[in-house]
Amino acid sequence: MYNHIQHYINGQWVDSTENETIDVINPATEEKIGEISSGTKEDLDKAVQAARDAFPSFSQTTKEERADLLDRIADEYEKRKDKFIEVIMEELGSPVNFTTEVQYPMGLNHFRATAKLLRDFDFTEKRENSFIQKDAIGVAGLITPWNFPTNQASTKLASAFAAGSTVVLKPSTETPFAAVLLTEVFEAAGLPKGVFNLVNGTGSTIGDGISSHPDIDFVSFTGSGGVGTKIMENAAQDIKKVSLELGGKSPIVVLDDADVDYAAKTAISHIAGNTGQVCTAGTRALVPESMHDDFIQAVKNHISEYPVGDPKDKSTFTGPQVSEDQWKTVQDYIQTGIDSEATLVTGGTGKPEGLETGYYSKLTVFTNVKPDDTIAQEEIFGPVLSVITYKDLDEAIDVANGTIYGLAGYVVGNDPDNLTKTARSLRSGRIVVNNEPADFTAPFGGFQQSGIGREWGDYGIEEFLEPKTIVGLPS
Ligand code: NAP
Ligand code: MG
To answer: DSSP characters for 111-138?
Structure first.
């Protein structure tokens, strides 16, 4: 059992002001794996005060000191590889291969990439008669979701520490134990007390408390659009800066010269990876009319290469949904697809055969989906793909851009002009051509209702800084 019924405040684990706890469930077994404290506003106040007290000295450290700190954090993170993998598998139900190859390194990469960029980052700049100095923003409140337990916390934390800001983190109640392990990492790396504070508890108490706290200067949030709106409303009361990383309904534009097997496997991997619980997942495959039948046949041929099952089994590609609630949401969307005029290619409602225990869904593909259908417009956050056909590339680009989101976009094909035209026309924060791996130094974030602000690398650091102009500075 992973019991952590304390908060980490001012460099030590402290009891909560109340004894209430929250159970944490392994979604593959439906069994309780531990409990965390359900924090109170008083606990949050103490954490904010600790961060406030630590700010004057931490914000005055040099960038070299902070870059060294980030590298020490990365070293300590690496020493705990097996622990991170075990914890993420247990609390998220993330399969062993995906956890090892994707979940584990993503958190690590943010600390390494930020350390490297920080050494070359300019905190000052001279213009005509002005001197510009970028100061740390102050105390940041960080609120994270469950789908990548170390990735989202790590990108925010690496940027905050690089900028010289101090923080209070509230992780998701679904996956709180990866953040406990991060705390161990920071202690081992010698992070000064009060720079990092962890308060566990619900979004409605601790999350709401962060976004309305008068002593918090900046809220960095990753999660759903509905909660993002509430955070903005609270933050508006005292003009608090917010950064929001929200949802998506990202397109995969398959060009007419794409290899059809490659395109189909790309699309399947987007809904199968992390059980489709990925904000950047490509969940709308836009396929030329002339390629449609071959594409659907290729999907049928390859779908069994992405088996759903026990996260501990090395042959498993897709695990369960994170919770029963998420499973029900996904099931409702699959039913909505079945009730529409779309055609079910594979999958459907219910659990896959032999997987009655655990919140498992079937990998589900619909075709003949219309661009405005519910399943083509709303984020499902599960393993559901909508295939939409197009006549020419201009139509594909229009359809690709035709949602309220703009987090990511994918292009698959060969012709360099068409790849370039499509990639440059998509209105999204991150476009991936032919499955190129991620660049952790480049900005990450969304257009439209996918969010406000950018994370990762130097763009991430900028979010935690306030530029100050001084004119007439004696030289
Ligand atoms: P969520 O319900 O928005 O929760 C995210 C975090 O916000 C959790 O820690 C949650 O606490 C907290 N929260 C809940 N209500 C709050 C409130 N009133 N005020 C402040 N915080 C509050 O989202 P989720 O279900 O965890 O994650 C799924 C969603 O996140 C999807 O829509 C997905 O697209 C989005 N997402 C976006 C990105 C990105 O980078 N753009 C990445 C991952 C996920 P609890 O522990 O109580 O739930
Ligand atoms: Mg859980």
So the answer is: HHHHHHHHHT--SEEE-SSEEEEEEE--
User: 265-274: per-residue pLDDT in tens?
Assistant: 999 999 999 9
Beta carbons of 336 and 348 less than 8 angstroms apart: no
Q: Are the C-beta atoms of 64 and 119 separated by less than 8 Å?
A: yes
| Smallest-distance ligand from the CA of 174 | 2
Active-site residue numbers?
245, 279
Q: Which residues pair with 318 in a beta bridge?
A: 308
pTM exceeds 0.85, yes or no: yes
Give the C-alpha separation, 9 to 453, whole Å: 28
Alpha carbon of 321 to ligand 2 centroid (Å): 9
Contacts of 157 (CB under 8 A, 6+ apart): 110, 142, 167, 169, 182, 196
Closest-lying ligand to the alpha carbon of 408? 1
CA neighbours closer than 13 Å in the CB half-sphere of residue 229: 4
Atom of ligand 1 nearest to the CA of 247: 34
pLDDT of residue 280: 98
Give residue-wise pLDDT tens across range 327-362: 999 999 999 999 999 999 999 999 999 999 999 999
Nearest-CA residue for atom 11 of ligand 1: 203
